[in-house]
Sequence to fold (179 residues):
Amino acid sequence: MLVRYLAEYADDPIVSSGCAVSPPLDLAACSLRIQQGFSRVYQAYLLRSMRQTLSDKLTRHAQVGRWQAGEQPRISTLFEFDQTVTAPLHGFEDAHHYYQQCSGLSVLPAIRAPLTIIHAKDDPFMTDAVIPTTPLPANIRYQLTDHGGHVGFVTGHWRAPRLWLEEAVPAWIAEQLDT
Fold:
């Protein structure tokens, strides 16, 4: 959302800079990836939370997307959730339209504010499709680490872990505040 916002409001953003950690820059690719291998564990975790939120909304509203009050939606993939809940609820034709309109990879060149993007190659939601392949503007710093998982970025030894992300992001923000 931040990437899309900074691109859409490039001439007058309400923030002077941004930091995106493990952003799914290509939502379609990430939706497919999370259905494979060990990533399905993360999908199950996310879906439990999302289904609970949907159920809570269905107790307060007559309808959410195609779901009626009192229904217990049997949604088994993130794509199915986006197809039946997210897309119709937010005015998109379908999940593909939602992914196309909300993915950030294609709009990176439009961003003018300073932005840092941090990804890890071993992020279970990520594929090579989310890694920018064209040169980025000088205001965008892209960091791709070998390890970090999805928003983990723990280094060091298991007895003395170092939370790299908790050092890197505040340092980058401080750098932006000094300029």
About this structure: The two ends are 25 Å apart (CA to CA). The mean pLDDT is 90. The first strand starts at residue 18 and ends at 21.
